[in-house]
Every structure is written in structure tokens, then in C-alpha cells.
Amino acid sequence: xxxxxxxxxxxxxxxxxxxxxxxxxxxxxxxxxxxxxxxxxxxxxxxxxxxxxxxxxxxxxxxxxxxxxxxxxxxxxxxxxxxxxxxxxxxxxxxxxxxxxxxxxxxxxxxxxxxxxxxxxxxxxxxxxxxxxxxxxxxxxxxxxxxxxxxxxxxxxxxxxxxxxxxxxxxxxxxxxxxxxxxxxxxxxxxxxxxxxxxxxxxxxxxxxxxxxxxxxxxxxxxxxxxxxxxxxxxx
Length: 236
What we know:
This protein is of the alpha+beta class. The chain has 9 helices and 6 strands, in the order H-H-H-H-H-H-H-E-E-E-E-E-E-H-H. Helix 2 runs parallel beside helix 4 and helix 6 (about 120-125) packs across helix 8.
């Protein structure tokens, strides 16, 4: 992979060098033949090149922020300078996750929480269900502040409760992006990074705090009594 990147870099560098040499040679030959370039024409040409190339780069940057194809939107930005980047920024919605990321997320959600902790998680979830979820707005600022402690060390692991009542355990918060938060799931060779939209996250809590709430004494409701009774009957 590194060799391929180096080959592409050398090829592009050589292309630019040859293009520069060709342009300089062409201008030199034109000047020797009596062709005179006015300063006004040269300035107008440079301004137009800056506008076209700048619009293409702006469109590519906005497309990357919205998790869209940079090359296609960059080409449209070059064809329709100034106008298309504005349309892309204000009118075209962002796509936070592609199909591959959604598949990875579903696979990870199935086995993110150990079976031995499911009962404690359900208990902690019920105990915290009466706490208002809007005390902290779960946005980019919140996850940027929560990702590290006062000394700048990464915090974790965390427990995330999603809007579909699924529970996801993450190792740490990688980066808080404008449209979504990037989190690490699993550790070692199984570590993977996924992005979750802020609107999909209902709660975020340190795993130690979550388990501490789960271990606190609490009265079991009817559903928990029935569940424990069935487990005892299966054990007998």
C-alpha cells in the first residue's frame, strides 16, 4: 500500500513538472516569436483559474464534511463555480453513514454488551429512565468535553443508549465531528471505529458509573420477578 501511494505521488509530481516545463517553453517560444501578453489578460486568466479551482476545492471540502463523494462534487464545483458550493452547503443534506458503516454498526450492536452484564444493564437502564435526558445536550461540544479528563487523558469505556433502546459499549471517544461522533468499539485486534449521529444517542455514561447504578439496591418490578422466576425454573 505504501509503495502504491509513493508511485502515485511520484507520477503526479512528474506530471506537474512536465506540465510546468511545457507551459514555460510555450511561453518562451511565443515571446521569441513576437507574441506579447498584456498584464490585464494575464490577471484576468489567473483570477478565473483561481475561481474555478477554488470552487472545486470548496465543493470537495463541503462534500467531505457531509460524507459524500468528493470527486463528483468537486467536478460539479469546477463546472458551476461559486453557485454549486453554495447549493451544496445549504440545500444538499449530509449523509453521516454509508451502507458499509451501517452494516458494521449492526454487527457490533449485536455483541457489544457481554451476556453476563445484560441483566445489570437492564436494571441500570430502568433506574435511570426517570432521569431527564436533556440535562446535557449530546452534541459535538458535549462529546469533545467528555472524551478526555482534566489532564487530557482519554476517558472510557462508556455505555451508550441509542434511540432504538439498544445498548452499545465503547472503549473511547475518538473524535467529535460536526455531523456525528466517532467511537472505538472493541480493543486490540478487534478494535473498530464507527460513527454515530448525535440524534441517535439518548444517553452517554461511563461504564463504571453505569454498573454502580446497576448494583445499587432497588426494588424489582413485576417484569424482573417473572424473569428471575423463569431462570430459576430452568435451572431446576
